[in-house]
């Protein structure tokens, strides 16, 4: 009998790399937004992204004969989770950045998601959050705060800041509710057909709001085309499917804690691509965030 252990070990190692791969891919979303938003309004940008994803995933689902949910109730739950994660969360983040909320402030607001998820996981999912996990979540948020501290300090302040915070807060509530909702009502579904069901209501909502509130004009620059293609292929087809797999396999707290690694990873990308500085305080924050996530996921 042939020895299949090496192949099994390789498959296990690859599966264990999913969290880090997700963080790396998800972190590029802020870079894509920075490149694409100067050439299109946020909801128009997202509507184009969702439309292309629907065409691609719809074709893949049909060609591969992917199984579809058996009941309308399952479709409803998958659609609601997609609406919260894609339309509400991404819509809030894109609008906040477009309106001028500093990226550091946006990251700090959305960085509260793991703490809110831990609170909701106990009440809504019956997950027990250990004291060491709470400590990890608090350390992770402290680390994120240090990473973005200089950007927050350099941003707008006062009444203007309060007015700009609303989309970021909506985004925070969207990703938190979406993670908890999906974990409770639709933890397992086919990623091909499920993506179609998740992105369809997101396109309908963002498209309607874009039609009502935006000019829907697009400047098809090289930066915009690259950003749109990157967000479709790498984020919507890659990172989103990884997120769905992680929600299926792990606890809500384990998944949410990974978002603490997004701002530090984004800061590294920004340093490499845009020559943004990395202070000693930011490096300390990165180490603290990594340690906090390790504690939360133990």
Description:
- With 298 residues, the protein is mostly helical.
- It contains 13 helices and no strands.
- It is globular and about 50 Å long.
- The model is unreliable at 1-7 (pLDDT under 50).
Task: Please give a quick description of this structure.
By secondary structure, the protein is mostly helical. The protein has helices at 5-16, 18-36, 42-63, 72-98, 103-110, 113-125, 131-153, 159-185, 191-213, 222-249, 252-257, 262-274, 280-296. It has 13 helices and no strands.
Ends distance: 37 Å
Rounded mean pLDDT is: 85
Radius of gyration computed on alpha carbons: 19 Å
In percent, how helical is the residue content?
over 70%
Secondary-structure element series: HHHHHHHHHHHHH
Give the DSSP E fraction (strand runs of 2 or more residues).
under 5%
Q: Give the overall shape.
A: globular
User: How many extended strands?
Assistant: 0
Uncertain parts: 1-7
Walk me through the topology.
Elements: H1 5-16, H2 18-36, H3 42-63, H4 72-98, H5 103-110, H6 113-125, H7 131-153, H8 159-185, H9 191-213, H10 222-249, H11 252-257, H12 262-274, H13 280-296
